[in-house]
């Protein structure tokens, strides 16, 4: 699990071993996908019989619980310090 960027499993739930270890390692994890994994051939068969092979790029969204074949665009957002700054003034202490 250590060299992986993210993990998804066929079975399991929020208290499964994979989910707990991934939380400790700060890695995205989706458990209980129902995908069929064939370790001998190195393939994963997902919804609509989509086949992913060892080495294919997949995107794992631990927040939504979704796994996509391929790479997806990500978006980085800046923290809006307007509200934080306002709260810091009211509380008279730093929140960041």
Description:
The protein has 96 residues and is of the alpha+beta class. The chain has a single domain (7-91), classed as Glucose Oxidase, domain 1 (3-Layer(bba) Sandwich), CATH 3.50.30. The protein has helices spanning 17-25, 81-91, and strands spanning 7-8, 29-30, 36-38, 43-45, 51-53, 58-61, 66-69. The strands form three sheets. A three-stranded antiparallel β-sheet has the order 3-4-5, with no helix packed on it. The longest helix has 11 residues, at 81-91. The mean pLDDT is 85.
Q: What would you say about this model in short?
A:
This protein is an alpha+beta fold and 96 residues long.
| Major β-sheet profile | 3 strands, antiparallel
Rg for CA atoms: 19 Å
CATH architecture designation: 3-Layer(bba) Sandwich
The quaternary structure here is single chain
Q: What does the overall shape look like?
A: elongated
Q: Describe the strand arrangement of the main beta sheet, using strand numbers.
A: 3-4-5
Order of helices and strands: EHEEEEEEH
Low-confidence stretches: none
What is the CATH superfamily classification? Phosphohistidine domain
Q: Report strand %.
A: 15-25%
The CATH C-level name is Alpha Beta
Counting DSSP H or I runs of 4 or more residues, the number of helices is 2
Number of domains: 1
Return the structural class. alpha+beta
CATH fold descriptor: Glucose Oxidase, domain 1
Q: What is the residue-mean pLDDT, rounded to a whole number?
A: 85
End-to-end separation in angstroms reads: 32 Å
